[in-house]
Design a protein that fits this description.
The termini are close together. A hairpin with a 2-residue loop joins strand 1 (24-29) and strand 2. It is elongated, with a radius of gyration of 36 Å. The chain contains 13 helices and two strands, in the order E-E-H-H-H-H-H-H-H-H-H-H-H-H-H. It is mainly alpha-helical and 348 residues long. It has helices at 43-60, 77-87, 91-106, 113-136, 139-147, 160-175, 181-184, 197-234, 238-263, 265-276, 289-293, 296-320, 325-346, and strands at 24-29, 32-37. The longest helix is centred in the middle third of the chain and has 38 residues, at 197-234. The protein is 65% helix and 3% strand.
């Protein structure tokens, strides 16, 4: 076996494929496949062949009047096997088919492992942030925010119960598929329209952006899970290494965003909205319902909650994929088992 070079990943340090000219018959032993050359018959079968030959020779010297056992021929079961072999396909075609199957079994190197690792590193921060946003966009956070000490009261008269009711309508609207009349038809205690047309239009824009982003990240996360399972089977240690670096990238990204928000929250908030919404469509007066339900403090607390949840998720993944000596040895052991499986498939 050739010594693997140090510049290759563990899953790339495999033996060279076996000679394709060898015709081998696969034999399954337990869970691991083994292969023996077709031209090497087991010792018991060789003895059976010699015994059959001797029995056939002795049968030729028998008299014509001698009777044979019922259901037996001169060649025994070998005659039946020969008849079956005569009806089989071309031996050369069968050998080529077995060689192709053996090549497929040996050619199990991961496809584009580096690209898949980069994909996992980039998807992990998005997945953690999207999951944190979805957790925050719930009535539980809304209730905790309205009832926490120090939260600013509405100077225009909304009570905590009214805020909870009307705020839940706005939260439900951005997370469901209801038409604009879901918000546009709401009225206050005096019978006046609760949300203006401009406010409903902005909440519709928020619905489209938020649900589109969550759906896109969900698809990327699903592809990431598939990629993790593929790399875990084909390249032991590659998926955990990518997730480890992805968790570090998440921490760095959260630190950068936190510094930007602390240094200038208004500028940060305006820049964030300008990336997704048209100018003038997301600015309202202090007396408008959206500002009364979701003041500046609400968005600051929501940003802190999203960052905190994403940070906890990144730290948990970092701890689960930290490259300890035990995890490295386990990955190398899986690589050795894969190489042993490939040697068995190759009949070596």
């Amino acid at each position: 076996m050739a010594t693997p070079s140090n510049d290759k990943a563990p899953w790339q340090q495999a033996d060279p494929p076996a000679d394709e000219d060898r015709h081998e018959e696969p034999v399954w032993t337990g869970l691991l496949p083994a292969v023996v050359p077709a031209d090497t018959a087991p010792e018991d079968e060789q003895h059976d062949g010699h015994d059959d030959a001797r029995r056939g020779a002795s049968g030729d010297h028998r008299g014509a009047g001698q009777r044979r056992a019922p259901g037996r021929t001169g060649g025994g079961s070998r005659a039946v096997g020969a008849a079956e072999a005569a009806g089989d396909d071309d031996p050369d075609e069968e050998a080529r088919r077995r060689a192709a199957l053996r090549r497929d079994a040996l050619a199990d190197e991961p496809r584009l492992p580096k690209l898949q690792q980069v994909f996992l590193v980039l998807v992990l921060p998005l997945a953690l942030l999207a999951a944190a946003v979805r957790v925050v966009a719930t009535p539980l956070f809304l209730w905790a925010e309205y009832h926490r000490p120090g939260f600013p009261a509405d100077s225009y008269g909304f009570s905590t119960e009214e805020r909870m009711t009307f705020g839940s309508y706005g939260l439900d609207y951005v997370m469901n598929w209801a038409p604009p009349a879901f918000l546009g038809g709401l009225q206050d205690a005096d019978g006046a329209q609760l949300f203006l047309g401009s406010e409903v239009a902005h909440m519709t824009d928020v619905k489209i952006v938020l649900q589109g982003a969550l759906a896109a990240v969900a698809v990327l996360a699903l592809l990431g899970i598939v990629s993790c399972l593929y790399l875990r089977a084909k390249a032991p240690g590659a998926a955990s290494g990518a997730l480890f670096f992805g968790s570090w990238l998440t921490v760095v990204l959260l630190v950068v965003l936190a510094v930007a928000a602390v240094l200038g929250w208004q500028q940060f908030f305006a820049l964030f909205h300008s990336l997704f919404f048209a100018d003038g469509s997301w600015t309202f007066r202090a007396s408008d319902t959206l500002i009364r339900l979701y003041p500046t403090q609400f968005w600051m607390d929501a940003a802190i909650a999203v960052a905190g949840l994403a940070l906890l998720g990144a730290l948990a993944i970092m701890a689960a994929t930290w490259p300890t000596a035990f995890r490295r040895h386990r990955a190398l052991d899986r690589v050795r088992r894969r190489q042993e499986l490939k040697r068995r498939l190759a009949g070596r």
